[in-house]
Design a protein that fits this description.
Elements lengths: L1 H20 L7 H23 L8 H19 L5 H18 L17 E3 L5 E3 L3 E2 L4 E4 L5 E5 L4 E2 L2 E8 L6 E10 L2 E14 L7 E3 L5 E2 L2 E7 L6 E8 L9 H19 L11 H24 L18 H11 L11 H5 L6 H6 L9 E3 L2 E3 L7 H11 L5 H27 L5 H13 L4 H4 L4 H21 L11 H17 L4 H13 L7 H27 L25 H11 L3 E2 L6 E2 L21 H4 L9 H6 L4 H25 L14 H18 L3 H30 L6 H11 L4
Antiparallel strand pairs: 1-13, 2-5, 3-4, 4-13, 5-12, 6-11, 7-10, 7-13, 8-9, 8-12, 14-15, 16-17
Helix pairs in contact: 1-2, 1-3, 1-4, 2-3, 3-4, 4-5, 5-23, 6-11, 6-12, 7-10, 11-12, 11-14, 12-22, 12-23, 14-15, 15-16, 15-17, 16-21, 18-21, 21-22
Length: 761
């Protein structure tokens, strides 16, 4: 079979090379017949690969057939359409396929050469420790975290691969540790952990492992243990020197081809270096597809958290969470306090906010609920009830929080894309197409909402709701013409004010941007002809909602400025929390400046959390990510802010631009980051301020671009933006994926990423 595989690979290389060499002209004579014929052969072989079992080579022939067909399509198209970028794509496609079938399949070539004899080790003949051979199941049982082992002596063979035939005993069992200790000719004693691997449910690839020793192996010991208490399995067999099947990953090839082509286009393509104003249709279509892709990624992230086959059942929930059920029922009952009654033990406590006392005295209480003067409340924003309350009244069911996160995040991403496009269309129409699309990719990736979609609990629901309402408010504000026209669009001003108020009722943190909005409304009063109507549209909605929020706060806690988190029953007693200035630096560093660490092992890209050596209590949620400065590298453009402002000739406009950029992109995000010292660190908070920081940096960089007359610098800027976009997509993509699918709870998904990058293991 190896001969057939290499023959097909050679045919693919030759016929693809013929297409690539003749992308701009007709293939002459016999070469055309050869290329067409070989393409047909490869396509038919690829179809056969789908229909029949090709053993260890499953998927390889399909990839070759698909690649040959794509090269043929590119050849037909490029005969009549000149495109340097598509020519480059054809070359990268061939390189990616060759790399996928050779370089990325390194484990499959492990025993292709050399004296490796296939050997099946009989479990019955093994020497067992902490286990016995079970004739009923035909294997040895691995139960919980207790390690069991089976040893063999006098094997006297070269070992290149080990295959473990495993059957997981329970649906809840996910993964089992697998270690192998072996002797070799260079030493008498066991080489410990020659193999250090994990057997994962539903991952046949995890059952194979490579071994690279210095000669013949005499003795081997295979050890197994569950990672969690529910991780149990049956080891059905052990096989040495079994060929490792190909692990073809079309997604890996697609990522390589698309990202490489995008960078090439940003550097060399005339289309990508054309200004937005001259290439509006292409920019619009590309932006739509990029936004659709981002929304699809959010949907996929959320759907993967829902058990298979239970999507429709999510809309018929008879129980909800603190927001979707408890707040809904409280409002339906005409009260602000929750319906749940505190336990007698909690009411009798001297300090009910002391988590230690509640734990050791085994006090019955509701976690992370607000407890004040003998009643339970919720400190989460009530704006989402505009969806949850009618849904419950109409259907009798509670709206699912994960679907709410998916809905809010998706709509927020669409609005964020519209905000960015509107800003470019209004003020930076002369930036290049490549810079525009790269900027869109960066802001969609680095906006921070992925850490809500990746863990769609009710905590993240409030974040995503605030993300949606604030992006909607920003969109209507920007499109109202308030900055460039004497007569602003009053309905849009009204909607921006209303949505600003709702954003605060989702996330009190966003009140800083509500203050910003009010300042901008005031700054532009003089420019408006109908000042009374303008003032009513600008301030009536936000003031009305603000007054209701103040009343809501006062009715619950006796203070118009108290949202209730101070009285929450959680890990910390916020009623006695003492402010320490140094604690703010922990948030400032980790949210803003923590650089990513690149390593050759899983998770490959990470951001180690730092407490900066401060001896203090600071809460850190699970999962950490890089600071926004290193997620979106164009943020360094702020250092050029002074130079950019000098390019605005009118002093009044210069002050106005500096105020908008400074408040929205620097000051308010900094205030938000400093304010979370009490709540601690959680990746989901990034959605509150990340995209605003990026937008401000774009305004500086795009202003410098549009004012520059240096063509070479403009082309260089487009290239740098393309490279930054690819960097952001890779770093954010991996960090968000690892955050959404941790190894301990989602080993199957973690294994996919591990195999995609760590192919050499």
């Amino acid at each position: 079979m190896w001969f057939v595989f290499f023959a097909a690979l050679l045919l693919l290389t030759v016929c693809s090379a013929i297409y690539i060499k003749n992308f701009r002209r007709d293939i002459s004579g016999n070469r055309r017949l050869f290329a067409y014929g070989m393409t047909l052969v490869l396509v038919l072989t690829g179809i056969a690969d789908l229909l029949f079992d090709f053993g260890s080579f499953k998927g390889a022939f399909f990839i070759m057939g698909a690649a040959a067909a794509l090269e043929f399509v590119l050849y037909v198209y490029l005969k009549n359409h000149a495109s340097r970028t598509l020519i480059f794509m054809g070359k990268v496609l061939l390189a990616a396929v060759l790399a996928e079938l050779t370089f990325f399949q390194f484990p499959s070539y492990r025993i292709m050469t050399g004296d490796y004899e296939n050997t099946v080790l009989s479990l019955e003949e093994g020497e067992f420790e902490n286990c016995t051979y079970d004739y009923e199941t035909g294997g040895i049982a691995v139960d919980s975290m207790d390690e069991v082992s089976v040893s063999y002596h006098n094997i006297n063979k070269k070992i290149g691969t080990v295959h473990i035939d495993v059957e997981f005993a329970d649906e809840k069992a996910r993964q089992v540790n697998f270690f192998a200790d072996m002797t070799e000719e260079t030493g008498y004693y066991y080489r410990l952990k020659v193999i250090e691997s994990t057997l994962i449910a539903d991952s046949v690839q995890s059952q194979d492992a490579m071994v690279q020793l210095a000669g013949i192996t005499s003795d081997a010991r295979f050890r197994f243990s569950g990672i969690g208490e529910k991780d149990s399995c049956i080891i059905k067999g052990i096989e040495l020197n079994r060929p490792i099947p190909f692990d073809i990953m079309p997604l890996r090839m697609a990522i390589i081809v698309l990202l490489a082509t995008f960078i090439y286009a940003c550097i060399f393509s005339c289309t990508m270096n054309m200004s937005y104003s001259k290439n509006k249709y292409f920019c619009r279509v590309a932006a739509i597809w990029m936004t659709i892709l981002a929304v699809c990624c959010v949907i996929i992230l959320v759907l993967q958290q829902i058990p298979q086959g239970q999507f429709l059942e999510r809309f018929r929930l008879t129980e909800g969470d603190q927001v979707t059920e408890e707040l809904v029922l409280a409002f339906e009952n005409g009260q602000f306090s929750l319906l749940s009654e505190p336990s007698e033990e909690l009411l009798a406590m001297e300090n009910p906010y002391d988590n230690g006392s509640r734990f050791y005295d085994e006090v019955d209480y509701l976690w992370d609920h607000v407890f004040y003067e003998g009643k339970y409340y919720s400190y989460y924003g009530i704006a989402p009830l505009l969806l949850f309350l009618p849904y419950h009244l109409l259907t009798g069911y509670f709206f699912p929080q994960d679907i709410a996160v998916m809905l809010f995040s998706s709509l927020g991403l669409i609005l964020l894309s519209m905000i960015y496009s509107t800003i470019v269309k209004k003020w930076f129409r002369e930036i290049s197409t490549g810079a525009y699309l790269s900027g869109l990719g960066i802001i969609l990736a680095a906006c921070g909402i992925w850490y809500s979609a990746g863990r769609p609990l009710f905590y993240e629901m409030s974040i995503s709701a605030g993300f949606l309402t604030f992006t909607a408010a920003a969109y209507f504000f920007i499109t109202s013409g308030i900055f460039e026209r004497e007569k602003a669009d009053l309905p849009r001003i009204f909607l921006s004010s209303l949505l600003l108020g709702l954003s605060v009722m989702c996330r009190p943190t966003l009140a800083v941007y509500a203050v910003c909005g009010c300042l901008f409304y005031i700054m532009n009063i003089k420019k408006q002809n109908k000042k009374v109507k303008y003032l009513l549209c600008a301030f009536a909605p936000i003031c009305a909602l603000g007054l209701f929020q103040m009343y809501y706060n006062y009715a619950r806690f006796g203070s118009i400025f108290e949202f209730g988190i101070k009285y929450s029953l959680t890990i910390n007693d916020f009623t006695r929390t003492e402010f320490h200035f140094h604690n703010m630096f922990i948030g400032i560093y980790n949210f803003l400046f923590a650089p990513p660490a690149f390593i050759p092992d899983y998770p490959f890209v990470s951001a180690p959390f730092s407490f900066l050596g401060i001896n203090s209590y600071y809460f850190k949620d699970e999962g950490t990510i890089s600071g926004i400065v290193f997620l979106a590298l164009p943020i360094f453009g702020y250092f050029l802010g002074g130079r950019a402002m000098k390019l605005i000739p009118d002093k009044k406009n210069r002050i106005s631009a500096a105020t908008v950029i400074g408040l929205v992109g620097i000051i308010m995000p900094f205030v938000i980051v400093c304010s979370v010292w009490e709540s601690g660190y959680s990746a989901r908070y990034m959605a509150d301020f990340s995209w605003q920081v990026v937008i401000g940096a774009y305004m500086v960089l795009f202003l410098l671009y549009t004012k520059s007359e240096n063509v070479q610098k403009k082309r260089m800027f487009t290239a740098v933006m393309g490279i930054c976009c690819v960097y952001t997509l890779v770093v954010v993509g991996i960090e968000a994926y690892v955050f959404s699918f941790p190894m301990d709870t989602c080993p199957r998904y973690a294994d996919i990423l591990n195999r995609m990058i760590a192919f050499y293991k």
